[in-house]
Amino acid sequence: MIEFHLDARSGVSPYQQIVQQVRHALRLGLLHEGDQLPTVKDVVARLAINPNTVLKAYKELEHAGLVAARPGIGTFVTATLSDVSLTAHGPLRQELRRWLLKARRAGLDDESIEALFRDAFRSSGAEDVA
Amino acid sequence: MTDLMTASGLGKRYGRRWALADCTLRVPQGRVAGLVGPNGAGKTTLLHMAVGLEKPTTGTLEVLGGRPRDDAGQIGRVGFLAQDTPVYSRLSVADHLRMGAWTNPNWDAGLAARRIGELGLPPGQRAGKMSGGQRAQLALTVAMAKRPEVLILDEPVASLDPLARREFLQLLMATIAEDKLSVMLSSHLVADLERVCDYIIVLASSRVQVAGEVDALLATHWRLTGPRRDPRTLPADFDVIEESHTDVQTTLVARCDGPVHDPAWTVGELSLEDLVLAYMRRARGGGLASGRGAGDGDTGNGDGGNGEGGNGDSGSRGLRVLR
Q1: CA-to-CA distance for B201 and B211, rounded, in angstroms?
Q2: Alpha carbon A1 to chain centroid distance?
């Protein structure tokens, strides 16, 4: 069983933080297929957050095919992230490193790189939605 | 499904002062609705009208589709926790439960006893000897054992220290997860509400400044920074909540229902607190006039008035949860 925590200053909404923490635990191998997630009541009693926030996070994870709800029992992990994404990590990290090198050579400092990344990330996200 | 609360043209006047004016709202059921605003904004007045402690001067108000205090049935459906979560200091925990059972037809003695056990409140302890946090937990337990469909709480955590505050909200959220009831609670601090509410109503200067689902509000409000420009040249779908200018730069907090396409703007997300504060400053008249017309222009009346709830306040100190 994992435990959630919330970072109020992260700027990431509580429901997204829960989704990220489950994904993270899957990636790190802390959660395996068949493991149970904390019940909604446990999460809200611990974090003092709205039950709908937890339900929304679990629904999104369910939609992504990572967990499944068994009514009256709880929510269980049905898939693992580690195999799929870990293999992709290496090449992506290399590409990113090359890109960072290029950016620095072009004279960008860390702050401009972050700003550029965030901006590109946001606009590509907006394109996906549109 | 009926709504948690609907208000139409609702107003309350004490003498010459409007404690609440022109309040039109529709809060869906199943929400945890936060009512936030500075002291004296009209929060207590609205909540007191919702539970029938005050009568509206103008307009109509329904809670769960019924007029407040219409009949015993309606009173039983609505639980209320007055400011400072009042309990009787000379009575013990067990006395509170006995009195609750005696005065409420739907009293759930099993639930009350179980909660008291889980919280570790000693049944023989007098309320006056308990900590503020424990008293608040007792008051909430009593209110919940009435088995209401909606729970209305007026500044439930304002007088609690940070740890007791968190513990109270933990209990409240666990209760909601178990019993699926609707909640409306007020606070003058956004931070208290940010984690628990999925619906928010900003009340300032006796008027509703903005109300809506938290997610929807956060998805439509932005902080925009860019080269200085005249806000009158902005597209029509921009509602400027707040603006500031230097000789070279313009910064806006704006509502824009679609995506912001203009590449001149750097677009930043807002926290709920930033969003609420922007509306409060606009209400106080600190911000400049907004782009949206009707009804918004007359909020900056500078009426900072104090004594929220006016002359009705003295009556709210009793143990309303036992009504």
Answers
A1: 4
A2: 17
According to the model, what pLDDT value does residue B315 have?
A: 35
The residue of chain A nearest to residue B193, with distances taken between CA atoms, is A49
Q: Which residues on A lie below 8 Å from B219 (Cβ)?
A: none
The Cα–Cα gap between B188 and B177 comes to: 25
**Residue where the block lists tokens 């503020």:** B132
Question: Listing from the earlier edge strand, what are the strands of the sheet with B5-14?
Answer: B17-27, B5-14, B58-63
Tokens representing B102 are 């005696």
CA distance B277 to B42: 17
Please give the backbone phi and psi of residue A18, each rounded to the nearest 5 degrees, phi first: -65, -45
Q: Which residues of A touch B267 (CB under 8 A)?
A: 122
Q: pTM for the whole thing?
A: 0.79
Q: Which two tokens stand for residue A121?
A: 């990330």
The string of pLDDT tens digits covering residues B45-87 is 999 999 999 999 999 999 999 988 777 778 889 999 998 778 9
Strand B199-204 and strand B182-187: the pairing is: unpaired
A47 lies within 8 A of chain B by CB: yes
User: Please, which pLDDT band fits residue B300 given cuts at 50, 70 and 90?
Assistant: very low
